[in-house]
Specification:
Length: 403
């Protein structure tokens, strides 16, 4: 068991980056506001995003290159487009994640109730971990965190089901009001994660291959474990929100500190106050792992992009992007300090609206001459990819028409 766990890597990093705001915040809120009514959205978005996420590790393992190298082969314009899109979204993504982590830290550790102070502390700790441990520490840390969260969440769901009174409806809902449509698009945007996560995954897969015999089959298996784990936990968080908060009249706050307290209470109301510390630590470490992985991923991607575009790549460039991302994140938090919900909504909707670009480019790359023939998509995967692209474009257009 331990040997198998050690062989896993980028797939769990994928899960660590994905299982954060999308699960702790968006899925729980979906259950609290709609009951089980948005299960269809959870399942469909996992189904239709699956090919484009999987093409990241598939391309990396079969070619020894990241998706960014492949983008350059498709034309420099594609790589420049990615650079611009990532530059536009990376700060809001990091800020949205950091503010939730800071809110949990306030509830768990106290010390100060200032969100910006905690955000700075969390960012500095993340930088130190990346400076000292680099990829290996990140790889090992995520395995422990994901395992802890999974066990505690399953336990909480089982207790919530056991304590549930009366019946509950599984009638599926398609939102019609503009606010509800906005939430649905935000929910889809980061479930299980933004599609540019496929690029980060490919970079981690290349890194993993340097240390171990990580062939393409192992890489896809590793990805599948992480990916379907995010689907399972998504269902768990919707279930918690639906069983504990739906119909209770209580709604989640847009304040990060208040929301964090509500989130922890969601667990303790089902499995007892004595578990407050355990649950608090599980929730905080989960969000911290997301903060940490993305603090590494965006700068790693931008560093490699700069190297490919300008032939200038070094550890100094990597640390430049980390520092720029950190400073930009803190500045954004100063402006959106009390509006966590708004910040998350902006970040998640931006991610969904840019998803068709990543889906199309990943599909073109994996289907073309730059991928070994034996690892190009099967007929079934191509069909699923076409439906996925239609799904992403269709919902983006629907949202824009209902603004």
């Amino acid at each position: 068991m331990i040997k198998k766990l050690k062989s896993l890597g980028p797939g769990l990093l994928f899960a660590g980056a994905a299982i954060g705001v999308s699960h702790l915040v968006q899925s729980t809120r979906a259950g609290a506001d709609f009951g089980f009514g948005l299960l269809w959205a959870l399942i469909l978005v996992h189904l239709f995003k699956y090919p484009f996420f999987q093409y990241g590790p598939r391309y990396a393992a079969s070619t020894g290159e990241s998706l960014l190298d492949g983008y350059k082969k498709l034309g420099k314009g594609v790589l420049i487009a990615y650079f611009i899109l990532n530059l536009v979204t990376m700060f809001t993504i990091q800020a949205a994640i950091t503010i939730v982590t800071a809110g949990l830290a306030i509830n768990l550790f106290g010390l100060t109730d200032d969100l910006v102070t905690w955000s700075i502390i969390i960012t500095i700790i993340g930088i130190v971990i990346l400076l000292v441990g680099k990829y290996k520490l990140l790889d090992n840390l995520i395995k422990i965190i994901i395992l802890t969260l999974t066990i505690s969440t399953i336990f909480a769901v089982l207790v919530a089901i056991f304590n549930a009174e009366g019946s509950f409806s599984f009638v599926q809902i398609l939102p019609t009001e503009s606010i509800e449509i906005g939430f649905l698009i935000a929910f889809l945007g980061w479930m299980p994660g933004p599609l540019d996560l496929s690029i980060w995954h490919s970079l981690w897969a290349v890194e993993k291959k340097k240390d171990t015999d990580f062939d393409t089959k192992k890489s896809i298996l590793d990805f599948n474990i992480g990916y379907f784990g995010t689907l399972f936990l998504g269902v768990c968080f919707i279930t918690l929100g639906a069983l504990v908060m739906y119909g209770s009249g209580e709604t989640f706050s847009n304040s990060a500190g208040t929301f964090a307290g509500q989130l922890i209470n969601l667990y303790t109301n089902t499995i007892g106050d004595t578990m407050y510390i355990v649950i608090g630590i599980a929730a905080f470490t989960t969000m911290f792992s997301t903060t940490l992985t993305i603090l590494d991923a965006s700068p790693r991607a931008m560093t490699h992009t700069v190297k490919l575009l300008f032939n200038k790549g070094s550890s100094k460039v990597y640390w430049f992007w980390i520092l720029l991302l950190s400073v930009g994140t803190i500045l954004i938090l100063n402006f959106f300090l009390s509006e966590m919900g708004t910040l998350i909504k902006i970040a998640t909707i931006l991610s969904f609206l840019t998803a068709p670009f990543y889906a199309i480019i990943n599909f073109v790359l994996i289907s073309g001459k730059h991928t070994p023939p034996e690892w190009r998509p099967s007929f079934k995967m191509k069909i699923l990819s076409y439906f996925g692209i239609i799904f992403l474009i269709g919902f983006s257009a629907w949202y824009l028409l209902n603004l």
